[in-house]
Write a structure and sequence with these properties.
Helix content is about 30%, strand content about 20%. It is of the alpha/beta class. The structure holds guanosine-5'-diphosphate (GDP) and magnesium ion.
């Protein structure tokens, strides 16, 4: 049984929170793309955790976690994240964490290049998380990156470091006029932060195939959402990896296996971190109010998230990209306390109404079309059954279900693991 948990929107939909809940029925949780630019906040009976690289299944004692080949791994960050979690009482060993030998290593110079480029762009910046993600994926496709498996063969690895550093300095010092990076600093980084993970590195594809054959249930945890996918998102304001469910088996290490189910995580309203077109965006007081109600500040960066009402056009597109069979709707409690709620139901483009999510350049010209639906005034964060919810909240859920043509099976009403209603 293979299930993917993926984002329908721009990210931060609450994927980590839903993986934490749904993984109770799974044996393995795999991250399959992205790096430590992810920020998944999980609150359960063991505490509050922010996960950047580790799969959210790490918080369950009987779940094995995998970092797949589609990921980029900043080993210093992983070292520190694992340390932080261990301090919070979470055990992390080669038994419950397996790192693909094919996953790519994010080096300090990738982070440096990310920062140098954002600074060069100044007011034209992309809103990068500055975690080196685009530079390291670029190197992967240039075939100049280092992979985790190379840590098992340090002599060969160190020989390559010399060549790569020489090449990298053509841009770092040659192009950006920054002090050159040195072989010694790269080797020191690998020795200090890479080596401690030697025993965690393996052919995770083999492990996952055997687990699957043995009838184990495998979950794939995405980072970011459909609209940040490198191919299908709002390029170039996307991430540098494939955030979509169809990539999960490839990025996890099992291209031979097929997904049984794709569960899309969709937020009851819209948020977006960083630059790029965001048609339904709220500004001013309206935005402040929603941002404060939802606590919309990035887990990875602390940046205030851009906010807006639910966007049917973007979400329907996200559902299509993710091939979502069902939806978990998150953060519905945040919308409590309004007489009326707006929903962006269509876009206006050059005087015409459109319902399909367009190409990025066209998106820039689109204006939101809002409809209003009755809100509810009571606090719903304690609701645990459908019957507990006010009729207006149920009508809101049904409206989204119909507009998006996908059934909603979970509705979360709080950040804690058990704060949800099964539909
Ligand atoms: P992810 O990147 O998709 O895993 O989502 P994030 O963790 O970045 O953002 C979701 C935020 O909303 C986190 O701070 C969660 O603790 C919080 N959250 C998740 N579900 C709910 C919910 O149903 N209600 C409220 N109020 N907060 C939630
Ligand atoms: Mg997040």
């Amino acid at each position: 049984m293979l299930t993917s948990i993926c984002g329908i929107n721009w990210g931060d939909e609450g994927k980590g929170r839903m993986v934490d809940l749904l993984s109770r029925e799974y044996d393995v949780v795999c991250r399959y793309q992205g790096g430590n630019n992810a920020g998944h906040t999980v609150i359960n009976e063991r505490g509050k955790f922010v996960l950047n690289l580790l799969p959210s299944g790490i918080l369950r004692e009987n779940v094995v976690n995998v970092l797949g080949n589609g990921m980029v791994v900043d080993v210093k960050h992983l070292f520190e994240e694992a340390g932080r979690l261990r301090e919070q009482g979470i055990s992390i060993t080669p038994e419950n964490l397996k790192i693909s030998d094919r996953a790519v290593i994010t080096m300090p110079y990738h982070v440096l290049m990310d920062c140098l480029e954002e600074e060069r762009l100044a007011d034209k910046k992309f809103g990068s998380t500055r975690r080196g993600i685009a530079p390291v994926y670029a190197d992967k496709y240039m075939k100049k990156a280092f992979r985790m498996g190379e840590l098992l063969n340090p002599d060969l690895l160190y020989k390559r470091v010399k060549d790569i550093v020489e090449w990298k300095n053509l841009t770092v010092s040659g192009g950006y006029d920054h002090a050159p990076i040195t072989v010694d600093e790269v080797i020191a980084y690998i020795e200090t932060y890479g080596k401690p993970f030697k025993d965690y590195i393996c052919d995770v594809g083999l492990y996952l195939n055997e687990a699957n054959k043995a009838g184990k249930k495998i979950m794939f945890e995405a980072q970011l959402g459909a609209l940040r996918d490198i191919d299908f998102g709002i390029y170039p304001y996307t991430s540098s990896s494939s955030t979509i469910a169809a990539y999960a088996p490839i990025g996890a290490g099992v291209p031979n296996l097929k997904l049984d189910k794709s569960i899309g995580i969709m937020k009851a309203y819209s948020t977006c971190v960083g630059e790029g077109p965001f048609t339904a965006e709220y500004f001013g007081e309206k935005a402040e109010k929603l941002r404060a109600a939802g606590g919309e500040y990035g887990a990875a960066t602390g940046r205030p998230r851009r906010v807006g009402p639910f966007d049917v056009v973007a979400s329907r597109y996200g559902i299509r990209c993710q091939g979502a069979d069902e939806i978990a709707l998150t953060k519905l409690d945040v919308l409590s306390g309004h007489e009326e709620l707006e929903i962006c139901t269509a876009y206006e483009l050059d005087g015409k109404i459109i319902h399909e999510f367009p190409f990025t350049d066209v998106l820039d010209k689109c204006k939101p079309v809002f409809e209003k639906i009755k809100g509810w005034n009571c606090d719903i964060s304690k609701c645990r059954k459908k019957e507990d919810l006010p009729a207006e909240a149920i009508a809101y859920i049904r409206y989204l279900e119909e507009a998006c043509d996908c059934k909603i099976t979970y509705v979360s009403v709080g950040a804690e693991r058990e704060a949800y209603v099964k539909f």
